[in-house]
Design goal:
Strand content: 35-45%
Number of helices: 2
Shape: globular
Number of strands: 10
Strand order of the largest sheet: 1-3-5-9-7
Largest sheet: 5 strands, parallel
Order of helices and strands: HHEEEEEEEEEE
Length: 152
C-alpha cells in the first residue's frame, strides 16, 4: 500500500523522474500473425476502402471469397494471401499498378486459376503474393481495374 500511496497527490516538476520510471515510453509490440477469414459456407467480401493486413489466411469450403484491392493502400511492398479452401470461389481484383503472383498456389481436383488481369499497367506497384492450396473444384479468378483516365 505504501508504494501505491507514494504517487498519490499533485504532480509537479520535481516528479518528472518518477513519471519516467513509472510510465513506459514504448509499449511492447507483439508479432502480428495472419488475419484469418473463414469462408465456411459463407461469403467473405472486402471492397471499397478497407485496411489490408500484410498477411491474410483464408480457410473454408463451399464459400465465396471476394477481395478487391483497387481502392486500398497496401501496408507494404508485399501482401501475402494464403488460401486453404475447397469447393470455393475466390475473386481477386487488383489495381492498375499492383502485381499479383500465384506461382506458389497449388491446385488439385478440377480446380482452376483464371488470370484475366494480365501484367500491371504501370511498374512499381505493390505485390500480392497468393500461396497455399485450392482443391475440389475451387476456382480463382483474377481481374484488373482499368487505369484511371487522365482529365487532360
Amino acid at each position: 500500500m505504501t508504494e501505491r500511496c507514494a504517487f498519490v497527490g499533485r504532480l509537479g516538476r520535481d516528479d518528472a523522474p518518477v513519471l519516467a520510471a513509472v510510465s513506459p515510453t514504448q509499449a511492447p509490440v507483439a508479432p502480428a500473425g495472419p488475419v484469418q477469414f473463414d469462408a465456411e459456407w459463407e461469403t467473405v467480401r472486402r471492397k471499397g476502402v478497407w485496411s489490408v493486413p500484410p498477411n491474410i489466411l483464408i480457410t473454408g469450403s463451399m464459400g465465396t471469397i471476394d477481395l478487391d484491392f483497387t481502392n486500398t493502400t497496401l501496408p507494404g511492398p508485399v501482401v501475402n494471401v494464403q488460401l486453404q479452401v475447397s469447393t470455393s470461389t475466390v475473386k481477386l481484383r487488383v489495381g492498375a499498378d499492383q502485381e499479383i503472383r500465384y506461382t506458389e498456389l497449388d491446385k488439385s481436383g478440377w480446380s482452376s486459376i483464371k488470370d484475366k488481369g494480365g501484367p500491371p499497367l504501370r511498374p512499381g506497384g505493390s505485390v500480392i503474393n497468393v500461396s497455399g492450396s485450392i482443391s475440389a473444384m475451387s476456382g480463382v479468378k483474377i481481374t484488373r481495374a482499368a487505369a484511371p483516365k487522365s482529365r487532360f
